[in-house]
């Protein structure tokens, strides 16, 4: 019973970490990354498809991204989707592929992006703490129902707190790594 609660806590906290990592990965850094285009969807024959499903995306240099569609007829719709997205880059279409030049970040923009990262991480920390609160409530309910002794409750609450601290440390490491990438 207690082990199931700990497993549930770990699974929920892992989901928070994964979600936060995904949110942060699309934030632009000082160099070109194909993950910048992960959120772009293309109207491909009436179906909204992720850009990486209908094209080959590469980053041959730190300041450019090349998109080569599998179907050359989709070049125009890819170009429109990139232009209408809010990534701050203008596509250059040469008839076969699309080039994106990644402009260098200004110091002001870097600071703004770092604040966005802090916001995502802070939201994730709140989610982790909410998981802790839910699990603690379950454990207290077990103790109230006499399924758990007072000593075991105290030990379980301490273990949940250690788990919470561990996951918050993971979030802080993710945050500092992304900050380092942005500052480069």
Describe what this molecule looks like in 3D.
With 184 residues, the chain is α+β, with helices and mostly antiparallel strands. The chain folds into two domains: 2-26 and 106-183, Ribosome-recycling factor (Topoisomerase I, Chain A, domain 4, Orthogonal Bundle); 34-101, Gyrase A, domain 2 (2-Layer Sandwich). The protein is 60% helix and 15% strand. It has five helices and six strands. The protein has helices at residues 2-25, 51-54, 75-84, 107-144, 150-183; strands spanning 41-44, 47-50, 55-61, 64-69, 91-93, 98-101. The strands form two sheets. A four-stranded antiparallel sheet has the order 3-4-6-5. A hairpin with a 2-residue loop joins strand 1 (41-44) and strand 2. Helix 1 packs antiparallel against helix 4 (107-144), helix 1 runs parallel beside helix 5 (150-183) and helix 4 runs antiparallel to helix 5. It is elongated and about 70 Å long. It starts with a helix and ends with a helix.
Q: Brief overview, please?
A:
By secondary structure, the chain is of the alpha+beta class. It contains five helices and six strands; from the N terminus they run H-E-E-H-E-E-H-E-E-H-H.
């Amino acid at each position: 019973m207690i082990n199931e609660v700990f497993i549930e806590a770990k699974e929920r906290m892992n989901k928070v970490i994964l979600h936060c990592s995904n949110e942060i990965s699309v934030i632009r850094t000082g160099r070109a990354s194909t993950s910048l285009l992960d959120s772009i969807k293309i109207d491909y024959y009436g179906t909204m498809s992720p850009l990486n499903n209908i094209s080959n995306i590469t980053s041959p240099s730190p300041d450019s991204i090349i998109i080569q569609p599998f179907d050359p007829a989709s070049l125009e719709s890819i170009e429109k989707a990139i232009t209408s997205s809010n990534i701050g880059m203008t596509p250059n279409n040469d008839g076969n592929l699309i080039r994106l030049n990644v402009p260098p970040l200004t110091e002001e923009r870097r600071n703004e992006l770092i604040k966005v990262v802090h916001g995502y991480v802070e939201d994730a920390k709140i989610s982790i703490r909410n998981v802790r609160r839910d699990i603690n409530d379950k454990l207290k309910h077990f103790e109230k129902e006499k399924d758990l002794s007072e000593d075991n409750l105290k030990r379980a609450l301490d273990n949940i707190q250690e788990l919470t601290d561990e996951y918050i440390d993971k979030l802080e490491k993710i945050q500092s790594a992304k900050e380092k990438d942005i500052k480069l």
